[in-house]
Amino acid sequence: MWTRTRPFNGVVHHRPFCLAEGDRRPLESAPVTEIPEHLLKRSQERRAALGLGGGDGGAEAPAAGATEPSTAVAKSAETAPAAPVGRAARAEPTPAPAAKPDPPYVVAAKRRRRVPYFAMPVLALLPVWGMFYWFSVQPPPPDQNDPLVVGAQVYAANCSTCHGSNGEGGSGPKLADGEVLKTFKDPLAQARWVTYGKTHGGPDANGNYGDKDRPGGQRSVDEFGGAMPSAEKDLGLTPDQIVAVVRHERETLSKEKTPPAGQEVTTDKVAAYIKDNPATG
Ligand code: HEC
Description:
With 281 residues, the chain is mainly α. The protein is built from 12 helices and 4 strands, in the order ββααααααααααββαα. It starts with a strand and ends in a 5-residue tail after the last helix. Residues 1-7, 15-19 and 57-83 have low confidence and may be disordered.
């Protein structure tokens, strides 16, 4: 197989055909347009008439170009006065249709700055960070703020040595099984007692403390060998901790019914009560 080149209007056409069969049957795989011989000839004549020359058919045409060049040019000038003669004769290739402009969103997407590669690990770790963040901002489990949980901790650390870890009593009186509820019907009075203890003016001047109408008689500090410390002055508990430990003694150790919401012993109520019932000594 070989290729024959035929110039036409400056364009080179490659037209493969099979030599072995002796004919010029074009190969089916070559989609080349066949230009009829008479058109080629006409083109060559025309070019010759305009004095442009070129092409392999130049040998046939020059005669015409040489004989009447001026007439040919004049004719051309008549038909297309504005355009340059030579160029007008040439078949101007139609410009390829302008590419359809991208829609604005595609333009924006192309202009947008890409995520740099070094940001990839950061992006990959983002969900992990999110999980940590999520768990860190979660409110603490409700137990941590539950006064009864706080009260149990305060009791174990400050009171259990004398009253027993379950309020069963020791050097101090028994608090469990409703005993402390007998001594103090009013939890505020109990909070005042715990705040001052025996050591800082909890009992009356005669040594008695708690309800006067207690079954079996009012309590007296003379009944017990030890001395009840002041939760505030001796043990250094905060008013909130005192409220919590009082609730623990009553509601957990002595099984008092949990008061309805809004009726619990509060720090404010205890402070107000203590103001009205100051220490006796
Ligand atoms: C050093 C031992 C000791 C410690 C610690 C102690 N207490 Fe007492 N507690 C006593 C004694 C003794 C009494 C009896 C009154 C007295 O003789 O002082 C008492 C009495 C009480 C009473 C009255 C009980 C009743 O029915 O008569 C309550 C309530 C009480 N203590 C609560 C507490 C709380 C709450 C704590 C911890 C914050 C605590 N106590 C720590 C020794 C102690």
